[in-house]
Design goal:
By secondary structure, this protein is an alpha/beta fold. It folds into three domains: 2-110; 113-151, no CATH class; 152-283, no CATH class. The protein contains nine helices and eight strands. The strands form two sheets. Strands 1, 2, 3, 4, 7 and 8 form a six-stranded mixed β-sheet that branches. A hairpin with a 2-residue loop joins β5 (61-62) and β6 (65-66). α5 packs parallel to α8, α6 (189-197) packs across α9 (277-283) and α7 (202-231) packs antiparallel against α8. The relative contact order is 0.10.
Length: 284
């Protein structure tokens, strides 16, 4: 369980949607009734068959520390889950308390500002804080892009690695289909020449070779999809915002592989239509 103290503008600044109820208001002060918000994970785990709004929660001990006389706080809203540790970790159960109703003085705080990032923004922020309280120590100033980049560095490397291997596999597929069909056309030169000599049209020869190439591609595609369905479930922790059996992804990959197979088959098929029947029969 994680407890966070936030200001009323936190959810708007961070773009976290409110599921039910209301957020914090400027009127939620230390003298107003104690309240809190919970995220979707807490709402599902603590109130699986009921409504969380209006219920009361007591925070008496958090992170191994006792906070004295616990008070019951009313749940006034439910917010969406967020990733706090990494993209691979599931959302943590989190409750949000108004900063004005802090249980005890905070040892440190994190301020979030939204605005146009400029080269001198960090120095301006440091100067503004020093004017308010020169004793305040500023740990670090980072942009959200820097935080996201540091958090997703490992995931981006995994994505780049898998994408590179997938591209290599796609290239090998195209080369394999092309090489196999080129070999097949070379072995069937006499047959294709005979067909042309007996009146077969160029389009019929093209279709003959393309069917063979597409057939090989479809067989490989079926085997590949079966293997993907068996393997993708073990890659669940590497996927974000998409299911392991996402139909759009499978359909898109299938169409891409069919296009690659068609392109790899077309070149040998086109070459087959240019076979001179007299040369083919004479070579035989």
């Amino acid at each position: 369980m994680e407890v966070r103290y936030i200001t009323p503008s936190y959810f708007n600044v961070m773009g976290i949607p409110m599921r039910r109820g209301r957020g914090f208001l400027t009127t939620d002060t230390a003298s107003s009734p104690p309240i809190l918000l919970v995220n979707d994970t807490v709402a599902r785990e603590w109130w699986p068959n009921g409504e969380s709004l209006g219920d009361r929660v007591v925070i008496g001990r958090f992170q191994g520390r006792d906070y004295g006389s616990p008070i019951a706080r009313q749940v006034v809203g439910v917010v969406a889950d967020t990733k706090t540790i990494s993209l691979k970790a599931p959302p943590r159960p989190t409750v949000y308390l108004p900063a004005a109703q802090m249980l005890e003085p905070a040892g440190s705080m994190t301020w979030i500002l939204r605005g146009n990032v400029s080269a001198g923004l960090a120095s301006e922020l440091r100067r503004a804080i020093a004017e308010i309280d020169p004793r305040q120590r500023i740990g670090a100033i980072r942009t959200m892009d820097e935080i996201v980049a540091a958090t997703t560095a490992s995931s981006r490397f995994d994505a780049w690695l898998f994408a590179s291997l997938a591209g290599l596999a796609l290239a090998l597929t195209a080369v394999g289909v092309y090489g196999l069909l080129s070999f097949a056309v070379a072995r069937r030169t006499h047959e294709i020449g005979t067909r042309i000599a007996l009146g077969a049209s160029r389009a019929a020869v093209l279709t003959l070779v393309l069917k063979q190439g597409i057939g090989l591609t479809v067989i490989g595609l079926i085997l590949g999809l079966a293997g993907a369905l068996a393997v993708t479930r073990s890659l669940t922790t590497l996927l974000f915002g998409v299911r392991p059996t996402d139909p759009i992804s499978f359909v898109g990959v299938s169409v891409l592989l069919l296009c690659v197979g068609l392109l790899a088959s077309y070149i040998p098929a086109r070459r087959a239509t240019r076979i001179d029947p007299m040369v083919a029969l004479r070579d035989e």
